[in-house]
Amino acid sequence: MSLINTLPHILLSLTLFFTTIHAATFDVVNQCTYTVWAAASPGGGRRLDSGQTWTFDVAPGTTMARIWGRTNCNFDGNGCETGDCNKALECQGWGSPPNTLAEFALNQANNLDYLDISLVDGFNIPIDFSPTTGDCRGIRCAADINGQCPDQLRAPGGCNNPCTVFKTNQYCCTDGPGSCGPTDFSKFFKDRCPDAYSYPQDDQTSTFTCPSGTNYKVTFCP
């Protein structure tokens, strides 16, 4: 059979394949008593007053994605106290530390989504990252990290990760796999949020999976 004759069959197979993989729906909910300027990459940004929800879809196959909250924003040139992205409401990139991150990659190996909460960029807002469909568990980091933050890591509106402050391999793991391990600072985060990444190579207890096709809710101040 010639390529011309097989091409329609190939296109039909690809169409059927991609139409069976649905975009994941994310509900971002602000349960804080204060306004949070939610941000998503991909997705942009949205102001969420207390009690408000922002819903959007993320395409299957998306990787290196994240959702976070920004605080004390003023888009007249000053931007946000925490989590700022180029002083704009609609984020085109990632936010500035400190910011608590809900990270994910959709439709990966073995038909799984991979998700985590990361404190590698520090902490600013308590967060819950949970499925609304599917058979898998949610994850949460809701401790009073800002109130208990070590003096060396304190920042306006949040608590920095030591990598942000000291910028050494001991905390940033920049020399490659196995080049660093837990520290007293990373243990501070891990003790309070066992589900969350406390340093860049904290994979074993910090990466979770859900079946591809799962929908999710990210809650600020759960």
Automatic annotation (TrEMBL):
Which SUPFAM superfamilies does the entry link to?
Osmotin, thaumatin-like protein
What are the boundaries of the signal sequence? 1-23
Q: Does the keyword Signal apply?
A: yes
- PROSITE patterns linked: THAUMATIN_2 (PS51367)
**InterPro entries reported for this sequence:** Osmotin/thaumatin-like_sf, Thaumatin
The UniProt keywords, alphabetically, are: Signal
Which family does the UniProt entry place this protein in?
Answer: Belongs to the thaumatin family.
Name the record gives this protein:
Thaumatin-like protein
The organism is Hevea brasiliensis
